[in-house]
Amino acid sequence: MDKKIPLTIDGKEVEAAAGQTILEVAREQGVYIPTLCYMEGTTNVGACRICVVEVEGARSLVASCCTPINPGMVIKTNTSRVRAAQRLVVELLWASGNHDCLTCEKNGDCDLQNLVYWLEIEKPRFRIEPPGYQPETNNSMIQRDLNKCILCGRCVRACNEIQVNEILDFAQRGSHAKVGPAFDADYINSQCYFCGECVEACPVGAITFKQARFKGRPWEIRKVKTTCTYCGVGCQLDLNIHDGKIIKVTGNRDSNEPNAGSLCVKGRFGLDFVSHPDRLKTPLIRKDKKGELEEASWDEALKFVAKKFQDIKKKHGADALAGLASARCTNEENYLFQKFMRVAVGTNNVDHCARL
Ligand code: FES
After folding, report:
1. Which positions of the chain have pLDDT values less than 50?
2. Element at 244 (helix H, strand E)
3. For the segment 24-43, what is each residue's pLDDT rounded down to a tens digit?
4. Which of 2, 4, 23, 332 would be 65's cystine partner, CB 3.0–4.6 Å?
5. Are residues 37 and 134 in the same domain?
6. Ligand 1: which of 35, 90, 92, 115 to mutate, judged by most atoms within 8 Å of the beta carbon?
């Protein structure tokens, strides 16, 4: 059996597993410690220092997200010293960026905004010139505004450790430090795959879904869990719906399998076809000699296709026909389709669009 480590957290004696961090134990015990740079499943970098706590005997406050527990540790998470340090961090972050919540897409779902409120900060004591970056708007999927970036590095770890795309990293130093692709390129001019993992990792409004801009506030959005229709992996995703329309897609992190909340570019950004005005809602047939497409009923369309199949088969044989199945169908539907082609039509010419 794993050895248990006794320790005290906010006056409560608890036991925890060896190797756990103070933050992990606190969360298990229902003790709230705020975090910004911490992201489950990635390296603990201890960059933001918002998660500091007091440990008896320690020379300074320690970052709970990357400090392992020791036997007999006495931890305090809510002293005035801890709160003063957290306020300082939040005030500096607030003052050093252009955190204009009125127009920010993350308003209502922003970790920095929540911390300002939680720490009851009316306004920062400091005035620092925002960096003055030009927001990046030259692609249709992701909008970046480095004026809102808090340099927590979550997007970097999401890109490198979760998706292993290795596109994002830190560049420059000190007040010029920033995150981005190599050679300071825009996303569209880099090797970025547009998986959108960085958007979901960003705790503030620095990286946001462009398609969702001004389409609905976080509290107006209804999430519907579903399975991605693009391929056979079966990724679990949340359709973010407002006014009956999908405005963005986020990974569903409730279940670990099969995608653990991550998505690819198709699942993440390719669902606007659902309400696209060009989407076909009824079969179309070229009925007359002019060759114009006209709306038809399903009965009419299926009879028309069956007749054409029979004519071709009679004239050229069954191997003149081929069937292309879809990755958007279920396994069962695809099974039936190939069975239909082999048994009813009489050909083995069956393929699949999974290489979409
Ligand atoms: Fe621990 Fe940032 S959350 S240092």
Report:
1. none
2. none
3. 999 999 999 999 999 999 99
4. 23
5. no
6. 35
What pTM does this model have? 0.86
Q: Which domain holds residue 315?
A: 285-355
Token pair 């597993």: residue: 17
Ordered alpha helix ranges (H), 73-209: 80-95, 111-118, 154-157, 197-201
- From the CA of 90, how far away is ligand 1's center (Å)? 12
- Select from 207, 242, 275 the last residue of a domain: 275
- Give 156's Cβ-side CA count (13 Å radius): 19
CATH number of the domain residue 49 falls in: 3.10.20.740
Helices (H), 77-175: 80-95, 111-118, 154-157
Give exposure, 103-128, as e/b (b: 16+ Cβ within 10 Å).
ebbbeebbbbbebbeebeeeebeeee
Verify that 240 and 185 share a domain, yes or no: yes
What confidence score (pLDDT) does residue 186 get? Answer: 96
Distance from the CA of 21 to the center of ligand 1, in angstroms? Answer: 12
Length, in residues, of the chain: 356
Q: Residue 355: what pLDDT?
A: 58
